[in-house]
Amino acid sequence: MNRTRRPRLSRRAGALFAATVFLAAASCKAPAPAAPRPSVLLVTLDTTRADRLGCYGSAAGLTPFLDEFAGKSTLFSRCESAVPLTLPSHVSILSGALPLRHGVRVNVEMGVPPALPLLADEFSRAGYRTGAFISASVLLKRYGLDRGFETYDDSFYDTLKKGHQKAPAEHTLSRALEWIRHQAGPWFCWVHLFDPHVPYAAPEPFGTRYKDRPYDGEIAYMDAQLRSFWEALSARPGSGDLVVVICADHGEGLGDHGEMDHGVFIYQSTMHVPLLIRTPGQAAGGRVDALVGLVDVAPTVWELAGLPAPAVDGRSLAPLLRGGSLPERPLLLESMDGLLTYGWAPLYGVAGGREKYILAPKAELYDLAADPAERDNLVSACPARALALRGEILAAQRTIRTAAP
Prior knowledge:
Blueprint: H1 11-27, E1 40-45, H2 64-70, E2 74-80, H3 86-95, H4 99-102, H5 119-125, E3 129-133, E4 151-153, H6 169-181, E5 187-193, H7 206-209, H8 214-234, E6 243-248, H9 268-271, E7 272-273, E8 275-278, E9 286-293, H10 297-304, H11 318-321, E10 331-335, H12 337-342, E11 347-352, E12 355-359, E13 364-367, H13 383-399
Parallel strand pairs: 1-5, 1-6, 2-9, 3-4, 3-5
Antiparallel strand pairs: 2-7, 2-8, 6-8, 10-11, 11-12, 12-13
């Protein structure tokens, strides 16, 4: 029986062969494991004016915790809400879509379109644990923002009671903290606090301390509860690796331009909101003066968490967090509450550069840098600029298709 002999390798050839195999194996090493995705905490402060925070210029001393937090975060000094109402504004925060696109224009009467991408949807698909803890019946799960959340805690709501209901910050934050303590990560948690909303009735000692300024008392109480929550959360291993976003959904009129609360007008008292973003490991504060919007929150969070972002109206602010820049672009504003609640004219607006234009039965144009209180209407003095900004609004209305009736 004939056998085919295998050729023998010389010692030198064998050594070369072994070296080649070793180098090939070394070059095919498995890539280093990707860094773990960060957990994300989103805190939305209902009805919170930017000018009540010390880090935004207030000397009233209402927000020592938020001011300290801002010292290790990036503060966006010019952030605009898209709409001065809780439900539609939160839909924009959690989707990156304008009300003109997502179609939720007022509270209670409309729900989130099923096809609208939401933050929790994307986090859930990426394997995150997801929890939401809300404080007002205007955000009950029946309106659709629960999509993508494993836990959506609206347990404060009593179905046997009529009318609007809310929970104090202490209740909501304690439930959120308990949920976080049971997560191994990564997780996405949204906490909504409703305290500065009417009727103002801050718990003691804040009610007595601010009896002549009840709105301020609610802000101070909320800030104190946030400190307790943050101190407990910071004691947890890995808390320095969180992405944290704190923002308001809209402000409060408090008599500015004749509006005591919010919803109808789109002046800065209800549209200018605080926005603080803290990235993993951030130890020093920063400030961004570029014009940004709440529609930018969702795409920013998606990028910071390393998740693909759906196409939305907002854009990621990550370049600004890294010290870079973004091209200027106009921000659309609106209020349909006057139309849908009272039969008045709808209000549309656009903020661009240092200016704001309001398309109303009597149009308004303001230089926000020179006139932050919006007292001097420049439409007659700057008709060309007013016409150009009006064109921005009309162009958007032509091109953006509403996703819901």
